[in-house]
Amino acid sequence: MLDLTPQSIRLVERYEDGTDIDHFTFEPVDKSKGLPEFADPAKVEPGQFFMLSIPGYGEAAFTYAGMPDDQGRFIALIRRIGSLTEALFQMKAGDTLGARGPFGKGWPDLNGNKVLVIAGGCGLAPVAAKIDALIAAGSDPVVYFSARNEAMLVMREERSRWHKQCKVYEAVDDIDSAKGSYMHGRKLPDNLKQIEAEQGKFDHIITCGPEGMMEAVCRIVTEAGHPADHLWLSLERRMHCGVGLCGHCYVANHLVCEDGPTYRWDQLGELVVKERAIKPPAEQVDMAVNAGSCCRG
Amino acid sequence: MNVYELDRIEHLRDWLALSHQVYQAVENDLGNCNWQPIEHGEVVKFKPNVRPLVSPKSLFFSEQENMFVFDGEKFRETLPEHGPRVIFGVSACDLTAISYQDKHFRKDPYYQARRQQTLLVGIDCTKPCDGGFCRSVDAGPHVKDEIADLILTPMPSIGGENTGWWLICSSDAGRAAVSGMDLRRADSSWSSWREMNRRHTEAEFKSDVHIINGIQRINARAVPDELWERLAHQCISCSGCSQLCPTCSCYATRDVAEDTNMVRQRVWDSCLMVGFQKEASGANPAAEAGRRMYRYWYHKFSEDYVAQMGRYGCVGCGRCESTCPGSVGVHSIMEKISNA
């Protein structure tokens, strides 16, 4: 039987990590009977999500932006965007919330493969733990991260670590006012071409960001010859339960909370045909224009 | 299978009421029929061949219920508590819907807390109800053995007068519930009489050509977006169809303050509401009314769901048609899309 009741967690730490975006660390209050599943590094997979309860304001899905450590501490990157996150942004270290999980299908095991990770804005959060896992497995992932402007380059601590551990490309749309150094190209196809010219072909590509961006990524790389069954993305839908009951996160006959949130592009394509779930953008997507309009949960 | 003869249905109900809380559809002065508790010894006539305004859905999947309490430190689950229950005189369409919901909510602790305490007494329909098309979607008019614990089927009538009932024990729980009751064993003729009765009833159903065509067109994705959009103009998002649909199972949650505690509730929701999929960012994958309308009927009639759930999501009760103020219930919709 499912347990739809959360367990108490404590807000350990939060700091600003982008415009209206904070980097949160949580831990279970009661560890006396071992770590609860949602905080157990042996039970959580990169790409999965948990349901965060803010008593009085409800519950929403957030991705694990970092795997739980052996103390059960786990990370979420959360954007202030609705009433629930507004309440969360009023909380301080030591406050009590609720959590349950882990839910959904994580990213596939791609250890030993040459992987390119393409993330836009807050879309970095669902792939961050996978980047860590690929680095830990010695698979040397290549990361391409893009955002609207410098202030939206989220997860700065993680990125500064990745810069030492793997190849990271960064791009901002608003390049004129940027202080750092970024890729010259502003258009997604140009940047992808440059990355491939420098790094060669990739076995697998993982992408996460706004749906329009992901659709554009998938279209561009498949047109360039990358196989659709080696292309992965993560969907965002409103969720009230996380366990396939409430019906909110439907895409055709799938429920994203159980059947996703990670999908293989060709398999998602079948659903798209059934429901035209993801619409191609009306015009050519400038990678970073939409990036940052997305945040898990 | 144990089959008994029964002179009066009320005898069985009264017997079950000794040890169970019994619910039966009772007609009020307006002719509307709703599920109500009947006490042991209560004199309420049982009326066969009625379609209650609502299915017994809410007796398992409550329209509004508490899930847990937060006291400031800890979360505590609040499961529904009650003794054994009987839902008495449920027709085949509603029983089919319950078995569909049983599958959907198989791991839901709140649903199962009620369901596992409940005995289902089904009854065969002997004539089609207004707007009902259970026959077309394999959900009636007769009750299948596996979806009820006890089944009542009428003996042949003489001069229009009911002469009694056969009581079929179709599960161990059903058999146990009537053990000790003074019942005569039926002779073997019951099954051929029942079969004949079924054929007679099925022959009385109106044409279902529009239903069959509509199902085919939905599955062939042959209904243009523009038509869904046009039909959706008639939907006023009242959610009446979802509320009355015995297989609709979507819910939303909300937090309610109670003294110093916080209570998480869940309440019925409907995919026809504009905010159903709307995210905090304002992004809404189902912003277009036509897509929401397509969604609703896709969920009821798509073969994609048959593969998952073993049958269509529609049990042919016709309640959506009778409640819809915009004439986009099942018959109206299927008529329009099959002629499009």
From TrEMBL, chain A:
Gene3D superfamilies: Nucleotide-binding domain of ferredoxin-NADP reductase (FNR) module, Translation factors. One of its GO terms (molecular function) is oxidoreductase activity. Pfam families: DHODB_Fe-S_bind, NAD_binding_1. Signal peptide: none annotated. It comes from the Bacteria. Residues 4-109 form the FAD-binding FR-type domain. This is Anaerobic sulfite reductase subunit B. It comes from Reinekea marinisedimentorum.
Automatic annotation (TrEMBL), chain B:
Residues 226-256, 305-336 form the 4Fe-4S ferredoxin-type domain. SUPFAM superfamilies: alpha-helical ferredoxin. This is 4Fe-4S dicluster protein. The keyword Metal-binding applies. GO terms for molecular function: iron-sulfur cluster binding; metal ion binding. Keywords: Iron, Iron-sulfur, Metal-binding. InterPro entries: 4Fe4S_Fe-S-bd, 4Fe4S_Fe_S_CS. The keyword Metal-binding applies.
